[in-house]
Amino acid sequence: MPVRRWLCAAMVAAVACGQRDRVSPGAGAGSGDSGSAVVSPPAAKGDAVGPGRCERLAFAPDLDLAEASGAVLTRLEGRRWLVVVSDSGHRGAYALVDPDTGIIGERGHLPLTPARGRHRDDAAPRQADDLEALAWRDEQLIGLSSAGWIRRWRRDGAGFALVGAPVPLLGADDAACPAEQVNCGRNYEGLCLGAGPADGRTCVGMAAAKATGRLVCVVEEPSGRLAVDDRRSLVFAPQALSGCDLGADGSLWLGANLLAGNAVWRLTGWASPGAAVQTDLGPLGDSFAEAIAVDVEADATIVYRLGDHGGRPSRMAKFRCRPGPQ
């Protein structure tokens, strides 16, 4: 997979960014919440920083964790941690990373299937370990696989305990693939969740589908199940989306991989895509950037990017971005 990614990246033509701040154009007839934003990859790539937008900060450049694919910043036992998880083939390996220094404070494995006798169905299909995204909601760590399956964990001592069994995203028939498959269907890479009622209508976040290039509204049903609402989505370049996160101010930060020059965009009004405002921040990150996590400060936002180049260690970078008023 990594070799194919790099070969594909070498084939991408450089295209100018264009306008930096713009209202995403509406796309769907008959729905005021529908919209699209077509994004061109920036000319630069690697660890370059958009002019006047972001500055790179001191941070550990490498993380002793293979193929970092998902990350989220949260508070555990009163301390802030960057939770990072590995890609497929690593059995849910995770690390808690100090967000100030990049030093690992804890490592372990997220349980992927229920223990015997607790929601376990031995006749159920094998569950792939292709965790691609992490989010935090209602005091639970939530993971999304590339196939569209959701897992939830709660903090349990010096580790995490699985809450219930893995379940697929609800929504359209193609919202999720069979649990044992990897990089199938929509091939999800990002999940960002915030506050909001579990009423089955309110967008509580977004899911980034790599294959389709769509950032799709996520709702929580009264039952607690997550579902995608394809009527509310933003359209980006296929195969480029790699992660998203929500800031405390409600802004959504979307990251792309090297196929789009490791670009990062800031979105406001994303819950009503037809009115979403997009700010291009240029390329942020090293290697084949995948995960993104943010921490909103008074006058800036700290952006973390982690790169998956198919091995160990994973690359890390930290930036302070000032996108300006929207």
Unreliable runs: 1-52, 119-123
The overall strand count is: 23
Distance between the termini: 38 Å
Mean pLDDT over the residues: 84
User: Which percent range describes the beta-strand content?
Assistant: 35-45%
Spatial order of the strands in the main sheet?
A: 1-20-19-18-17
Count of folded domains: 1
CATH architecture: 6 Propeller
Structural class: mainly beta
Order of helices and strands: HEEEEEEEEEEEEEEEEEEEEEEE
Fraction of residues in helix: under 10%
Number of helical regions: 1
Which tags fit this structure?
single chain, 326 residues, mainly beta, Neuraminidase, 5-stranded antiparallel β-sheet, 23 strands, 3% helix, globular
Give structural notes.
This protein is an all-beta fold and 326 residues long. The protein has one domain (2-11, 29-321): Neuraminidase (6 Propeller), CATH 2.120.10. The chain has 1 helix and 23 strands. The protein has one helix spanning 2-10; strands at 21-23, 54-56, 62-63, 68-76, 79-86, 93-97, 104-109, 131-137, 140-145, 149-155, 160-162, 167-168, 188-193, 203-209, 214-220, 226-235, 241-246, 252-256, 263-268, 277-283, 289-296, 301-307, 314-321. The longest helix is centred in the N-terminal third of the chain and has 9 residues, at 2-10.
